[in-house]
Amino acid sequence: MNNQLVKINNTDLQIKEFRNQRIVTLKDIDTLHQRPEGTARRNFNENKKHFIVDEDYFKISASEIRTHKIMDISNMVREDVTFLTESGYLMLVKSFTDDLAWTIQRQLVNGYFRAKNNQPIGLLENLQSELNNTRQELSELKQMFLDRERVKALKTGASMNERLSLVSDKDIKEIINSALSIGVLREVDNGIAIDRNIVLIEASKKNIDKYTLNKKLVISGIVILGSDNYPYKQVRVKGNNQWCYVVKKNELGE
Question: Where are the alpha helices (DSSP H) in 51-180?
Answer without folding.
Answer: 62-67, 86-92, 99-108, 119-156, 169-177
